[in-house]
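Subject: two folds for Thursday's group meeting

Dear M.,

Sorry for the delay on this. The cluster queue was jammed most of the week, so I only got both jobs back this morning. I'm pasting them in the order they finished. Each block is the input sequence followed by the predicted structure tokens. Could you check whether the formatting survives your parser before we put anything on slides? The first protein is the one we discussed after the seminar.
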Amino acid sequence: MTGQRRAARSGGEGRDRFRFDDAAGGEGGPGYATFEGRESLAALNHDSAEVRDLAVRVLTHWLDRGASAWRLDAAYGIDPAFWASVLPAVRERHPDAWFMGEVIHGDYTGFVEASTVDTVAQYELWKAIWSSLADVNFYELDWCLGRHNELLESFIPATFVGNHDVTRIASKVGAAKAALAVVLLMTVGGVPSVYYGDEQGQWLHVSLSLEPTPRAEVRAPDEAPLVVEPPAQ
């Protein structure tokens, strides 16, 4: 991909695949638009038919090999119309495939309808669960459950209390309250998922940064909490 970016930047083959910004990064910057400031992640041109066809091929490639679902990372950063142009072509060959878009906040129902994904990650409920348990204040959770029930009338949200981008639930609220979080996860409407290690009450603190942060091994709950911080500047 690096070679393709260089060729495209100079006006060569594949220029239509990327979005360019000569001012990106200031003097000596990459010259192409990036995803959330990460120079290693060039922004694709989602208006390009070539990019759309590439997405169809990639999604279909793994479904052909036995995958049954896709988590569309950072789906919030792409026009929903792009997914609406891609997914029908994939479903022609894999009508039972399930697509979950990562959408942090906003109009969940509107995104599902416009993009044609099956569901989105229910980050609002995730946040309400851990913060209500941590603060022993359930007003936020009560409000969020009401909104969650309204979402269920349109689609079935993907629910969770942990994933690879967030601090583990046991690190947030402690082992005893983590068990209560799982009770909520498994009893509200939705498609629940358990992030590996959470079922053992494992600890991990995640500090998100624009800089690369190494993935760390999980630790058992009786070991000292493991803290992952951005690399020193």
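Second protein, same layout:
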Amino acid sequence: MHGGDEDAVIRLFGGNPEQCRPLRLEDLREHYERDLILVSRSGPAVIVVENNNYQGSREEVLRPLSRHGRTASAYWNVNAVSRLSLAEGGLISCAFEMIAPEYTMFGARPDAWQPLLEGLDLDDYETRWGAGLMAVERATGARFDNSWVRGPHRAVEITRVPESLLGQGLIDSPLLKREPFISYLADLRPTLLKPMRRHALDLALAHAGLHEHPLAVATLTAATLPAGERVRLREDLTAAHDQAHTRARAMLIGEPENFEPEWERPSHLVFRQAIVFGVLAQCVAAHLPTPTDGFPDILSSLDTAMTGDGARAHEFWMVKYLHDAARRAA
């Protein structure tokens, strides 16, 4: 973060400055399982280092920090999940996955990183994370040099900052001005999980063109079917999933390598159908051997089917966000 003071940064990460202690940078790796941050100053910037954590990549941390000064974050893990974020004036200006920036960029000013990335190579795996750190240097004035490595550094344990109910990209959504979202927000409790899951499933069925498919219609009333019919329905759904998946893979082979937008490939519709058939099979399985009330937690399984940039996809992601918030309230 450019400017500001270390104590303010520590508090915004969920730590107590009075509990800080000295720690060398190279010793941070020994605290792999603790929520520990290392805080120090480099020129005009305050630098925070985490090991095996990602709090500094979260909107709930970045946005408050950026009210004190321009804030940048480079995050990656052993699975190559990454994010390069730039926040200014209380908003995420631009953030993206360093592996695929062209597909994952979002924020109030999606081009905000562009001048700061000039000459940096994010395509080379061996230098990608270093390029991300150089971008952070350019954005904040920090310097990850030998002087900074030597310290001094202060270590402090942090408590995770609670997740925001509505993030930057959602709080102004027109969806929140109509039902059922008005009712969701009025009483966001676990009792809403059942209608939210049905809402999400209806959106996915429509998105995959399956809302009138006989197997989908039967699934929505599976709890009323005899046990033997529920077993057969699950088998039919599993077979439909396998068939759609095989057909989609065959279609993809014959399609152009470059297709824009990617989610409008003909094969993608069939992939979505395969995913939804699989989720419907999960729903029926939840009624075996005896019927249950409502649907299992299917939203994380449906999200890969909700590709695209249309109104239906946006509505699904709003439902998922509120569903996750209601589940956390349990």
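Two things I noticed about the second structure. Residues 122 and 130 are 9 Å apart (CA to CA). The chain has two domains: 6-157, 174-328.

Cheers,
T.
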